[in-house]
Design goal:
The protein is 22% helix and 28% strand. It is an alpha+beta fold and 151 residues long.
Length: 151
């Protein structure tokens, strides 16, 4: 039989989780809006993805010298491969990258970058699509859920 103290702990645990549950439900129920800096307009690209609001971080690019090798996610890297490397996001995570008015939606295909100060490593294909040179800051938004398709 549970004591009063045990019952209070169980009740508190349920109520402590309510704000987290409400936040998650709100994120899943609310599509991103184009005005938020997120990529709600990804429905325009036909991906059916909704993204978190846009953030900014350092990026570099890689590729030459590594072509023909497998990425950490099992893909063979080629000069035209479009993808990104990130230290912690799971393989296959959809990411929107924005650089000087150009945007692409791609997936995490590798691990990196390893030098400090950068969060993203673009493949040569992603670099060319964004017209990204060297090392700079890029806007990014990570997919948070699949948007419902209407119709």
């Amino acid at each position: 039989m549970a004591t009063n103290a045990t019952r209070r702990r169980r009740t508190y645990g349920i109520f402590a989780a309510l704000p987290l549950i409400a936040t998650l439900l709100a994120l899943l129920a609310t599509p991103a809006e184009a005005g938020t800096g997120g990529a709600a307009s990804e429905a325009e690209a036909g991906t059916g993805l909704a993204f978190a609001p846009l953030r900014w971080a350092g990026a570099t690019w890689y590729g030459p010298g590594l072509y023909g090798r497998r990425t950490a996610c099992g893909m063979v890297l080629r000069p035209g491969t479009i993808g990104v490397a990130h230290r912690h996001l799971p393989c296959g995570t959809a990411v929107k990258l924005v650089y000087r008015g150009r945007a692409i939606v791609t997936r995490v295909i590798d691990r990196g970058p390893y030098p400090r100060g950068n969060a993203w490593d673009l493949t040569n294909g992603a670099r060319r699509a964004l017209r990204f040179e060297g090392s700079d800051r890029v806007g990014y938004a990570v997919a948070i859920h699949y948007a419902r398709r209407s119709g």
